[in-house]
């Protein structure tokens, strides 16, 4: 028989033991469990279209956190990327999509979705935007409306730029290979 201790005399260890006893028989709801401990949602195979592999991914990602990478077209600064992706996030929020946005480069952002089942609808919205170069979702790269302009510009290389590039290549080849600091600065 444990000695009864006055509650005012409890220390941190006593409080921790009391909390463990209290939660031992407490049932935790599935929604309160962390995502990795939740049981996977049952997949309804009647909704799967064999002609569309995306339909399988939609159903398997439903209810799970998913991230997609978005590239902004042109040559934006990090602030411009922040503003453009903020507009996209606001539009998605107004359409009742829970999306968090993280800027990871001068022209890249991560869109994190709480429910991956909506990822393909969000991807369709993003690739239809004027400044979206591409969206990467589950390892698949989807070209955006803004990416087409970049491809056109790459194909129309001006002769002056090509000449400058050849001159730069000759210059970098003339630098000694063992001088690493100079070579690295030249590459930057």
UniProtKB/TrEMBL annotation:
Show the Pfam families listed in the entry. Mesd
Q: Where is the composition biased (Acidic residues)?
A: 23-32
Q: Please give the Gene Ontology molecular function terms for this protein.
A: low-density lipoprotein particle receptor binding
Source organism, top-level taxon: Eukaryota
List the GO biological process terms.
Answer: protein folding; Wnt signaling pathway
- List all Basic and acidic residues biased stretches: 146-188
UniProt lists the family membership as follows: Belongs to the MESD family.
UniProt name for this protein:
LRP chaperone MESD
Lineage, top ranks: Eukaryota, Metazoa, Chordata, Craniata, Vertebrata
């Amino acid at each position: 028989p444990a000695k009864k201790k006055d509650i005012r005399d409890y220390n941190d260890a006593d409080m921790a033991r009391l909390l463990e006893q209290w939660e031992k028989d407490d049932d935790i709801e599935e929604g309160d469990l962390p995502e990795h401990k939740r049981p996977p949602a049952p997949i309804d195979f009647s909704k799967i279209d064999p002609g569309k592999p995306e339909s399988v991914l939609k159903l398997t990602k439903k209810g799970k956190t998913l991230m997609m990478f978005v590239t902004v077209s042109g040559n934006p600064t990090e602030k411009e990327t922040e503003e453009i992706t903020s507009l996209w996030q606001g539009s998605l929020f107004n359409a009742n999509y829970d999306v968090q946005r993280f800027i990871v480069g001068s022209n890249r952002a991560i869109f994190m979705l709480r429910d991956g089942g909506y990822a393909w609808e969000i991807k369709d919205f993003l690739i239809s935007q004027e400044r979206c170069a591409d969206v990467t979702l589950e390892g698949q790269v989807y070209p955006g409306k803004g990416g087409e302009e970049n491809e056109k510009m790459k194909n129309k290389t001006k002769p002056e730029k090509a000449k400058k590039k050849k001159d730069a290549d000759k210059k970098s080849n003339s630098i000694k290979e063992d001088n690493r600091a100079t070579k690295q600065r030249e590459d930057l």
